[in-house]
Amino acid sequence: MGSRMNESGNREGVSNATRLALPSAEGPIFVLTDALMAQGCEAARHSPRRRIIFPIHRRPEARVQRMLNFMQPDTYVAPHRHPLDHAIETVQVLRGELGFLLFDESGEVVSSHRLSERESVALLDIEPNLWHGMVILAPNTVVLEIKRGPYDPTTDKEFAPWAPKEGDSGADAASAEWRKCFD
């Protein structure tokens, strides 16, 4: 059925090392349970990045990449775009709330979209080559992301040259400024 994670948010038998992602789901069927959602949110709370990915796709070379992103409000998602022609991205909020931003080439916000489990708008789908980012507006936000695979970190995304990188000193200020779009 689903993968079993321990109280630290890691699959049973896997070391408690700092991770960007949890081990992928296993088996022929994946069922998202409340317990798994709680474990993923707990893992995100303890992650230095304040977010963690749980791949639903069973193999890294899968043609359709499906992931759960467990995210906390103080995470920073650097604006980026997916430059490959096939890099369509679908994002759906399953729990919590996020602010999704689209930027122009110079970094100006051109549109903002509040996605929430409580609102009628909880899903968006974007075409390749759009500068985008997000701010997390509620604790324990869980996002389903679907993209074409296989994932290649050297070609998957291009980070915006006009925005701070993750870990840069200006990241918190940039995130606070973008959050104002949703006040």
Structural commentary:
This protein has 183 residues and is mainly beta. The chain has a domain at 61-137 and 145-182: Jelly Rolls, CATH 2.60.120. 12% of the residues lie in helices and 33% in strands. It contains 2 helices and 10 strands, in the order αββββββββββα. The strands form 2 sheets. It has a 5-stranded antiparallel sheet with strand order 1-2-9-4-7. 28% of the residues are buried. Mean pLDDT is 89; it is low at 1-17.
Q: What is CATH's topology name of the domain at 61-137 and 145-182?
A: Jelly Rolls
Structural class: mainly beta
Mean pLDDT across every amino acid position: 89
Question: Main β-sheet: number of strands, strand sense, barrel status?
Answer: 5 strands, antiparallel
| Portion of residues within helices | 10-25%
SSE diagram, text form:
Elements: H1 34-46, E1 51-55, E2 64-71, E3 77-81, E4 89-95, E5 97-103, E6 109-116, E7 123-126, E8 131-136, E9 141-148, E10 158-159, H2 171-179
Antiparallel strand pairs: 1-2, 2-9, 3-8, 3-10, 4-7, 4-9, 5-6, 5-8
Name its key features.
12% helix, 183 residues, 2 helices, disordered N terminus, five-stranded antiparallel sheet, mainly beta, 10 strands, Jelly Rolls
In short, what is this structure?
The chain is mainly beta and 183 residues long. It has a domain at 61-137 and 145-182: Jelly Rolls (Sandwich).
